[in-house]
Amino acid sequence: MKINRHFLELHDSYLFSTVGRKTAEYIAAHPGRKVIRLSIGDVTRPLAPAVIDAMHRAVDDMSKKETFKGYGPDRYCYGYDVLLDSIVHSYARKGISLEKSEIFISDGAKSDLGNILDLFAPENTVLVPDPVYPVYVDTNVMAGRKILFADATARNGFLPMPDFSVDADIIYLCSPNNPTGAAYTKEQLKEWVRYALKKDAVLLYDAAYEYFITDPALARSVFEIEGAKECAIEFCSYSKTAGFTGVRCGYTVVPQALIREGTSLNKLWARRQSTKFNGVSYITQMGAAAVFTEEGEKQIAENLGYYRENAAIIADCLDGIGIRYTGGKNSPYIWMECPGGMGSWEFFDYLLENANVVGTPGSGFGKNGEGFFRLTAFGTKEDTAEACCRIRDLLTK
Ligand code: PLP
């Protein structure tokens, strides 16, 4: 037996474990100090009441033989009509028409972002923005694929644009981006669609944070761009939209029009999913279906508004100190330049020791993240405000 040696090429995933270890060590050495975490990429607001009610009703369904559910319906890879219809409807409001057969319900975006690679030959070249969500790189390292990086720097507003002299087959785009918070305009995305169509490539478009977009010039879905159905797959999640990080539900859109080498990628993905996946629980799907109801949307808007206010508090604080940053306006992430030319980990230690505030060092997201720092808006309002006071005091000293 031989192992997949590509796993040995992975860098240790030390970012969040080192953040956790350093924080725990600091707290142990300084008992009684209140350390505030603006590092978490996890939500803190509870589920919307409409979601909870729908899940309770679904539990009741499971308790009676007349309404009990086993495996999900085969027809749409285990997605229930009520959830698929609500997703079709939510896309229709963005002016995008989808068939239910183009939507695949998942247990979150992360699994599908990794699993989708089953569809692509190992010899494909992958293009990944740097910095970005580390899952794109690691899943391709595991598969032994050649990875090229598209630099996301202050010079391009952390939004790399296509270089037509570079040949890539699979391109990851994350908008709004984790960690930089930068989001593509529709005009910019048109260029990526043009590139993918010209190169016969596929865009893997991660829209996990689309619900944070308020600026109408920014794209909420890659399918707002003409031609995208011929070259893109979109990954969506209820995690940050509706607080489902612990519940687990998302959806992936693989258009029927996406054909490569005469083969429908929609059919390949349906085949892959029906072979290696047995669907998302009925209770979870019923909860998710409540998100896009009138009541559900109102309630999740309150939670999103809460995080947006946190982001505005952080942005105001950095504006006041004169520190440059991106994000925070159409994203829960604020990507700030480390002050005084400090390195990412140097600033992490400085902030922890002198303000008792924890963030995430940008260098953990790629080489271009060095010298940057990610703060998140997912904490409580009180903690965010207090952390910002401390940051202001420390950096204006
Ligand atoms: N995509 C991005 C860019 C993320 O930041 C995350 C989670 O932090 C995910 C996908 C994963 O989301 P899910 O909880 O749906 O697996």
Q: What value does the average pLDDT take?
A: 96
Which stretches are poorly predicted, pLDDT < 50 over at least 5 residues?
A: none
Overall number of structural domains: 2
Looking at CATH, the homologous superfamily of the largest domain is Type I PLP-dependent aspartate aminotransferase-like (Major domain)
User: Count the strands?
Assistant: 15
List SSEs in N-to-C order.
HEHHEHEHEEHEEHEEEHHHEEHEEEH
Bound molecules: pyridoxal-5'-phosphate
* CA-atom Rg in angstroms: 21 Å
Query: Which word captures the global form?
Result: globular
CATH top level assignment of the largest domain: Alpha Beta
Q: What multimeric state do the chains show?
A: single chain
Question: How many helices?
Answer: 12
What is the terminal-to-terminal distance?
61 Å
Structural class: alpha/beta
Instruction: State the strand order across the main sheet.
Output: 2-8-7-6-5-3-4
Helix content: 25-40%
CATH architecture of the largest domain: 3-Layer(aba) Sandwich
What fold name stands as the CATH topology of the largest domain? Aspartate Aminotransferase, domain 2
**Fraction of residues in β-strands:** 5-15%
Biggest beta sheet attributes: 7 strands, mixed
